[in-house]
Design a protein that fits this description.
Layout: E1 5-11, H1 18-31, E2 37-43, H2 57-78, E3 87-91, E4 103-108, H3 118-124, E5 129-132, H4 135-143, E6 146-149, E7 155-158, E8 164-166, E9 189-193, H5 202-213, E10 219-223, H6 231-247, E11 258-262, H7 268-276, E12 280-284, H8 294-300, E13 306-309, H9 315-318, E14 320-321, E15 327-328, E16 332-334, E17 336-340, E18 356-360, H10 362-374, H11 377-392, H12 395-407
Parallel strand pairs: 1-2, 1-3, 3-4, 4-5, 5-8, 9-10, 9-12, 10-11, 12-13, 13-16
Antiparallel strand pairs: 6-7, 14-15, 17-18
Helix pairs in contact: 1-12, 5-6, 5-10
Length: 428
């Protein structure tokens, strides 16, 4: 009988963030094969994001594994020995990856621009494997090179040398919270979900929406914050929204459209309830780029239209491919230009000043807003696309890919994984 692998997962397992959910996905994958892995957890923070308030079975298991990990570290400290693991999975931006086990796997959402920093490539090449969430991010990693010199002064090229595999998030049967109520005046409401920052392009998104919908009986639900979900941040966020309203120079007395701010901690079931609300009809974003786009992914599984730029990671799940190789777009794609990131978005060691991201076209965005509201075909396409997502991002299949990458050899999962149909829905 073979021994279980001792696997340590270091990441923001308890935070309300994309990387937090990514960490929990890795943990769910490992937990699905408790016969193979003995799991340890080293929780980290993630920026200014808050902590999850879920108290489900997974959270209880995570808390127990964190406690056991701490007890193990304390025991090893008493014996003046370092903790010993077989494999590490480190869910973070590559700058934070370290060699902490014989086998080290870096796990990241990747990059939203056209180029990764040299620090990322150097850290990536210290890893044994890399798990990334999107085809876009993988291609950026593989296509980025830097020319320079080595320690001897000889010409040298820095590029990715570590195997990199795409493992997206699994589609899950997320159930709504029936007790959640939204007081929305109109029957048609758009929704945006994401943290306020330069990459999300929220200022322009709100302004364009206001200009397009000013005299229309529609609403926009904004689930957003700048930093922590506290009262100070709520007031700051409201101030930003009011500033954008004033900047439109439109007659306030003629405004029919309504803005709603959702600020604060929401459980997963509450978010899904909002997505499924009969008056929430369409998700919108004017993002410059996504490492994956988890809110878009979850909303796509509800089967409602999405307006988004036609660039970066979310195309993995918003675009399907027929058996004939035809690209199918069940979302409303916004045209864009690729241009250098602004100075305020440059992040040393992460976002390069000479990298580019998408700048959505204002006219295209407004046109798609109008189409989503007035053309019913986009609703039908979104509903038809659910089958494609559930097939491509099946939960068991996704977990199996993580398991096989961590285990180091192909695991026999014939009795564990049901055969799935993968027919792609085509549109007329």
């Amino acid at each position: 009988m073979s021994m279980k692998q001792r696997v340590v997962v270091r990441g923001p397992a308890l935070t309300q963030s994309g990387y937090g959910e990514h960490t929990r996905m890795v943990l769910r994958s490992l937990r699905s094969r408790e016969d193979l892995f003995d799991v340890y957890i080293l929780p980290t923070n993630w920026g200014h994001t808050g902590w999850t308030s879920d108290n489900d079975d997974l959270r209880q298991w995570v808390d127990e594994r964190i406690k056991s990990t701490q007890e193990y570290h304390n025991l090893m400290a008493q014996h003046k020995q370092p903790p010993s693991y077989d494999v590490s999975l480190q869910v973070a931006i590559p700058n934070e990856w370290e060699k902490i086990a014989p086998v080290n796997i870096g796990v990241t959402a990747g990059i939203e621009t056209t180029k990764v920093a040299p620090e990322w490539l150097m850290k990536a090449n210290e890893m044994d494997k890399i798990i990334i969430t999107s085809t876009h991010s993988k291609e950026v990693f593989e296509n980025t090179t830097y020319e320079g010199t080595d320690n001897t002064g000889a010409p040298a090229t820095l590029s990715l040398n570590t195997p990199i595999e795409v493992v997206g998030y699994p589609a899950r049967n997320l159930q709504p919270d029936e007790d959640l109520e939204l007081e929305l005046e109109y029957d048609f409401n758009y929704i945006f979900v994401g943290q306020w920052g330069p990459r999300k392009n929220i200022d322009n998104m709100i302004r364009w929406w206001l200009e397009e919908c000013w005299e229309e009986p529609v609403g926009l639900v904004l689930k957003t914050s700048h930093r922590k979900n506290n009262l100070k941040d709520r007031n700051f966020t409201l101030g930003r929204i009011k500033h954008i309203l004033k900047s439109t120079n439109l007659d306030e007395e003629e405004r029919k459209c309504k803005l709603y701010l959702l600020h604060g901690d929401l459980k997963e079931k509450e978010i899904i309830s909002i997505y499924r609300h009969p008056k929430v009809k369409c998700m919108i974003t004017a993002t410059h780029g996504e490492g994956f786009g988890l809110p878009l992914f979850d909303f796509a599984q509800v089967g409602k239209p999405i307006v988004a730029p036609e660039w970066s990671a979310h195309l993995d799940f918003l675009v399907a491919e027929s058996k004939s190789g035809k690209k199918i777009k069940p979302f409303l794609p916004v045209s864009y230009d690729l241009a250098p990131v602004p100075e305020g978005a440059v992040w040393k060691g992460v976002i390069q000043e000479d990298s580019m991201w998408a700048y959505p076209h204002e006219g295209s965005f407004k046109h798609r807003l109008r189409q989503a509201r007035k053309n019913k075909k986009w609703l039908q396409r979104a509903q038809d696309h659910i089958k494609n997502i559930l097939s491509k991002f099946d939960e068991a299949t996704t977990y199996a890919r993580v398991v096989n990458l961590v285990h180091g050899e192909e695991v026999d999962i014939d009795d564990w994984l049901e055969e799935l149909e993968s027919d792609i829905v085509e549109y007329e």
